[in-house]
Design goal:
Helix content is about 95%, strand content about 0%. It has about 55 residues and is mainly alpha-helical.
Length: about 55
Amino acid sequence: MKKVQEKALILSTFTSVLLSFAVVIGTVAFILLRTKQHREYDEKWKDYDECGV
């Protein structure tokens, strides 16, 4: 019985750590994507800022 509980605890811990990494990686990817899109948008419209339109 104790072996089963240890395996369940290890599996639960591994799953929690794996999901935590997935959330962190997803958050970093989202931030990088938003930053890239913002830079591309600014680059596209920077010429128009100079002419006052």
